[in-house]
Specification:
13 strands; about 290 residues; 4-stranded parallel β-sheet; about 40% helix; D-amino Acid Aminotransferase, Chain A, domain 1; globular; alpha+beta
């Protein structure tokens, strides 16, 4: 069984390199040949059709967000984990919200901002009046694309909301109701297939966001069945084979905040001792063997 681990050529950090090493090690332990390729190298292979056919893998672990590359690989009949559609559904937070709402998965009340254009921006903000009547303040404002919580903001009032939107220019946005009970705290559930493998409680006393990269800390916790089922439902709603599902602790019930198609699981490993890469590789083998 031969596979590629496709990663982004332009985003290479020590943390990511360690993650790739975990996946490669788990593949080796399970007798799977896994070659690490950047999206640039895979793109170069695709330009030579004959050469590519001799190199074509049995599967790809797509640990990137280069959706168009993923679509081209799928067009050649290669099975991707995760699929192009799943990566896009997770990468674009507007699409994530739509997929979750359509599947009946509970999320904070969410409004997607109207579309503008690169050379225009948000020249009038009447839509903000609708958002503030529905969601109130504080209000969470998110860019549709972003990682590690860096593109998530909290507007305390209309003045701050207007300033944020104007500063963000023409980026696609969404507005969410602020879940005060979950300030600086959420549960990251790692799902593989239809199983919630493990979970961590992420807490940050200094920020409304719980991200570890932003100063949060992680503690391994036992999985509550309701939260485990919710995480699996979220994963299925976006079509992901595996994902890190972030769950807010609402006053009345848990709510799905985000679904990450290529989750950073080193913090989970440190907090729980569970190496998610082992489950990912085992799941891929199971899926490919089932197909025959």
């Amino acid at each position: 069984m031969k596979g590629w681990l496709i990663v982004n050529a332009f985003l290479r950090t020590q943390k990511l390199e360690r993650l790739y090493a975990f996946l490669s090690s788990s593949a080796q332990k399970q007798s799977v040949s896994l070659e690490l390729l950047t999206n640039v190298k895979a793109w170069e292979y695709l330009q030579n059709g004959t050469d590519f056919m001799t190199r074509m893998p049995d599967f790809v672990i797509f640990w990137d967000k280069d959706v168009r590359l993923a679509e081209r690989l799928e067009g050649l009949g290669i099975r991707l984990f995760n699929s192009a559609a799943a990566v896009e559904n997770c990468d674009d937070k507007q699409r994530t919200a739509f997929c979750l709402q359509r599947a009946g998965v509970p999320i904070p009340e969410t409004l997607i901002a109207p579309k503008t254009f690169d050379n225009i921006g948000y020249t009038e903000l009447s839509f903000l009046e609708v958002a503030e009547k529905r969601l109130g303040y504080p209000m969470v404002i998110k860019e549709a694309y972003g990682s590690f919580g860096a593109q998530v903001y909290l507007a305390q009032d209309k003045e701050q909301a207007c300033s944020l939107i104007e500063n963000l220019g023409r980026k696609p946005l969404l507005f969410q109701k602020y879940i005060a009970e979950s300030r600086g705290k959420d549960i990251r559930v790692n799902v593989v297939g239809e199983k919630a493998v493990c979970a961590i409680l992420r807490e940050n006393a200094e920020d409304f966001r719980s991200n570890i990269s932003g100063g949060g800390r992680a503690t391994g916790i036992a999985l509550d069945k309701g939260i485990a089922d919710l995480a699996v439902s979220a994963c299925q709603a976006v079509g992901a084979d595996f994902a890190g599902v972030d769950i807010l602790l609402g006053k009345d019930a848990p709510l799905v905040c985000e679904v990450n198609s290529n989750p950073h699981f080193e913090s989970t490993l440190t907090a729980t001792g569970v190496d998610l890469s082992e489950y990912v590789v085992a799941y891929i083998k199971e899926q490919l063997c089932a197909v025959g």
